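Write out the 3D structure for:
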Amino acid sequence: MKEITVQQITDAVRTLCMDVSFDLPRDVEAALTDGLAKEESPFGKYCLEQILHNCHLARESRQAMCQDTGIAVVYLSVGQDVHIIGGSLTEAIHEGVRQGYEDGYLRKSVVEEPLFERSNTGDNTPAVIHTEIVPGDALRIMVVPKGAGSENMGAVKMLKPADGLEGAKQFILDTVRNAGGNPCPPIVVGVGVGGTMEKAPMLAKQALTREIGSRNEDPRYAKLEEELLEAINNMGIGPQGLGGRVTALAVHIEQYPTHIAMLPVAVNINCHAARHKEIVL
């Protein structure tokens, strides 16, 4: 059995919180560069040039690429043969977030209580943690900061099975159309289909962490991803919502079995700063 200390976990999360805010994933950068070559609108091209310039400055200067450094969403894949020693796994994650946001001079955006006082916790904790137990002796940690501009534009709908493919497509496209320029396009669209009311949004958010340009293994869903991407880019929303052809960099769909009487569909949107990084201990 492999032993991993809580200090190792805290150190890893601290590093990830900073790196993910400073260093845009290379696949996202490549998709933005490709979008610049495809964009027909002069002002759209200008927006994409500025987005890429900002990306390079953030990486070189080790400063946040966006002032909204988000709420920290942390995905853990914990091997069955891993033994966490020295304290609480959950508290180790929170401490890593606390240190990363403080040491990286990242904006603290978490409020302690959502409905009444909404006082800031002052250290961007607690994180939102999703844990999966998997075979093996490794601990995989992925940090996915989610800013409000894009997160607020997501939606989930419990469709009827009779709504079928067309109903799902219409809901997805309506969600993106209603979002307009609010999530700072060009966006990445994550879609979750199936499961239950809570499972579909989890699938949609995980879909955002896939490599840009990857396709669903099921050819039917892969084709749907391509169709939706084309339809979204024909809406004319464009970079930063100011018009153009490049509204979305990718559409990623994840599916899960569901009940005979249900058809849950969820949409989660990432802004052009599609931040996610991982480490394996």
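Helices lie at 6-22, 26-38, 42-61, 89-103, 148-151, 164-179, 199-207, 219-233.
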